[in-house]
Write a structure and sequence with these properties.
mainly alpha
Length: 215
Amino acid sequence: MNSERHHFEKEFSLLRAELSKMVSLVMDTIEMSSFAFENLDRNLAKKVIEMDDEIDNINREIEELVLDIIARFNPLGKELRYTIAAMKLANNLERIGDHACNFAERTLWIIENLPNFKPSFLVKEMFGKVIDMLQKTVTAFSRRDTELAIETWKMDDVIDELDRRITSEVEGVGAHELVLNVLFSRDLERVADHLTNICEEIVFIETGKELKESL
């Protein structure tokens, strides 16, 4: 292996490691924010908010690594697709982390202002579906599994249906609870949208084609 190729492999391995670290952190924040919401756990909600800076920092490191790899090594084919997709993937993960932070901040507001608040069953169900979708997306990415990526991409329809149900079921729900349920629902729906973006990138990395061409 020549020297330039050795340096490229080293940078590429570092990029994969940073992505793996970011994926793990984002998954933790979504799972923790879900638990904090269901149990109105102040300490866990604060922990999610504190983790947001670390996610943002890793995102910046990934962007710098990607630009450095392209400038220094001029990768081609699948290596180029992976490098570019890595930055897009990191940006989507960073936005998912922002939504986890929103969930945590909203949970803290509920604890302070609505001590008798009862988390909506539908919102809890939606959290569960989004976490399942996130776990499958991470597995598809780590295994480079395009079939699982496509299967996970299709789960967005289930999330959209739950969003519609939460928005429309207003009977017997107080005004504050209704607004909060809808806010959580909309943020969860956006998390699912970011996950579909990641699934599309997985398929593109592996095949060079848009996901919809693979259906």
